[in-house]
Design a protein that fits this description.
The chain is α/β, with parallel strands linked by helices. It is 29% helix and 16% strand. Helix 8 links the parallel strand 7 and strand 8. The radius of gyration is 30 Å and the shape is elongated.
Length: 358
């Protein structure tokens, strides 16, 4: 897929890894390898280098996060493997140090976007460092008030950063349908005029997971993010929302079909529609209701609309071009009326003459 994240007319899929690797680099590399067969656009990774910048020293989860975080010196090799998989890279930076590192290597790797998680969307230090990134900045807006979203967007725009994507959705291990609220995406779109993506975190064992995951595409939101695992059923971090590789393939296939049904944002008819709308074989053509003699004026009572075997050069709406003109030759009953058998003088539309009195 050649679309970029903020310039896509087609579904754009992000494969989320989060902390599913639990600090095991070999596992993460195997996960990346399993993604090669998925027709997705990008792989997303969470970076956390400086835990002291992320949470207080006495936080009970500090040591757990320390164990499942991959250190900075290991990430370049991981990103190289991602490039070899043919996928773009999205990096969620949880701390200042990781974001500074990303900015330092952004010209070396196809990093499509950086993300600020909703837990820090108003962290002025993260926002300020994000200004140094050249491409898309994703702002996680799950569980955030309108004012919080507005604060982040205004900060970036006031500092001449306009390549922004808002990511709707949040992880609730798993997230209930009633908490998704897709209609909020429409409100955010109207309020900020920015592209939006949807990060789905619903139960992967739910038979409706595929449908729920792609519903935003119906409303024109083409960016879909999903947690994906190559060990379905195994109890690992973030597994509560992770679909299998095969499930993800099904989700992408469904999304692509929905995108085809949505079509394009213009009124140009497809070849099939043009054929269906052909006047004569499909839409009724103007024909002589009864035989018309050469030199006879063509009045409304001499015209009928009927389907024919051949195409008509005149559309139904061209009736005013036919009325009150003169037959140039004898016209048989049911013969198609055209400028070949009638004279034509330009006249303005006058629909009043077509009112049929009862």
């Amino acid at each position: 897929m050649n679309d970029t994240i903020n310039n896509t007319q087609n579904p754009y899929f992000i494969l989320e890894t989060a902390f599913h690797h639990e600090g095991n680099i070999e596992f993460l590399e195997s996960l990346i390898e399993s993604f090669k067969d998925i027709n997705a656009n990008a792989i997303k990774f969470h970076l956390l280098f400086d835990l002291n910048d992320y949470m207080v020293a006495n936080h009970p989860a500090l040591e757990v996060l320390r164990k499942i975080s991959i250190p900075q010196d290991k990430w370049q090799e991981i990103l190289e493997k991602t490039v070899n998989s043919g996928k773009e890279i999205i990096l969620l930076c949880n701390d200042i140090e990781s974001m500074k590192w990303v900015n330092s290597i952004q010209d070396k790797f196809p990093i499509s976007a950086i993300e600020i998680h909703s837990t820090g969307l108003n962290d002025i230090f993260l926002l300020n460092e994000a200004l140094n990134f050249k491409k898309t900045i994703i702002i996680g807006v799950g569980g955030s008030t309108f004012d919080e979203v507005q604060y982040a967007v205004n900060f970036l725009k006031d500092n001449n950063k306009t390549d922004i994507l808002l990511m709707h959705g949040f992880q609730n291990y798993p997230t209930n349908y009633s908490d998704i609220n897709l209609k909020r995406m429409l409100l955010l779109k109207e309020a900020f005029g920015l592209p939006l993506g949807y990060a789905d975190h619903t139960d992967p064992t739910d038979t409706r997971n595929e449908i729920i995951s792609v519903l935003p595409i119906v409303s024109g939101f083409n960016i879909i993010e999903k947690h994906v695992t190559n060990v379905p059923g195994e109890k690992r971090t973030d597994a509560q929302a992770a679909v299998s590789v095969e499930q993800m393939k099904g989700i992408i296939s469904l999304a692509q079909d929905i995108s085809k049904v949505n079509g394009v944002n213009n009124y140009e008819l497809s070849d099939a529609e043009k054929k269906y709308g052909n006047t004569g074989p499909m839409k009724k053509a103007m024909v002589a209701r009864l035989p018309i003699k050469k030199g006879e004026k063509i009045t409304l009572d001499k015209i009928a609309f009927k389907r024919t075997e051949v195409s008509s050069p005149l559309l139904q709406k061209d009736l005013h071009k036919v009325i009150d003109n003169i037959a140039k030759e004898d016209i048989a009953q049911d013969e198609i009326l055209s400028f070949g058998n009638i004279s034509y003088e330009f006249k303005k539309d006058d629909f009043g003459q077509f009112f049929i009195k009862k």
